[in-house]
# Entry
Amino acid sequence: MDEKIKKLQELIDNAKRIVFFGGAGVSTESGIKDFRSKDGLYNLHSKYGHPYEEMLSHHYFFEHTKTFYQFYYEFMISKSAKPNDAHLYLAKLEKAKELTVITQNIDGLHQMAGSKKVLELHGSVHRNTCLKCGKHYSLDELMELGEVPYCSKCGGLVKPDVVLYEEGLDMGVVNEAIYQISKADLMIIAGTSLSVYPASGLVYYFKGKNLVVINKDPLNIQSDDYLEINEPVGKVFSQLHI
Ligand code: ZN
# Structure
């Protein structure tokens, strides 16, 4: 076993309270299309002609709802995606340790793997709400409502519970994330470049001893004392045991 993986195993074994903070790189091995990748962006531009920040913005949702949903179903939804070794390991670890998963992903794969304590900073594609009467819809139910989904009960527009550009994060979720990070003695950051808010800011609430970064590309963290593993996230977790 690789020395770094061995060290990570040791840190997990000895930890009392763990926070796992994950980004897009946690889901790529599950077949979630990374629309921010070169190919994804190329396809997006040639088809829609707008940057993704525009297509996924609050104003675009209301002004071009039909195109928003075309883009959303094509680039944001992967119905065939299954949890990978990282999701499955964390679900098992939660039964043995005090563990909170904080994710920037909206795909619900941690819950699909069996995790219960999951804080979704950007919401979830699996929750959708009528803006008029508050009726909730699953993803399947949403897709059955048509190209532009109108509520079957009241006719109001249904919107995914996903944080769009120009929208604020749920402060209840953010505060709980800060609380869990500040209490943890081991924090594992995985599959995120840490360059964007809120990931960049949240890491500074960590006061514990052991920080681990798992990311394909090296990161620049303002701390000289952390374990960095530059490998795919699922591959790393496939080598660990509980
Ligand atoms: Zn309604």
Summary: Residues 130, 132-133, 135, 151, 153-154, 156 surround zinc ion (CB under 6 Å). The mean pLDDT is 92. DSSP finds eleven helices and nine strands in the chain. The first strand starts at residue 17 and ends at 22.
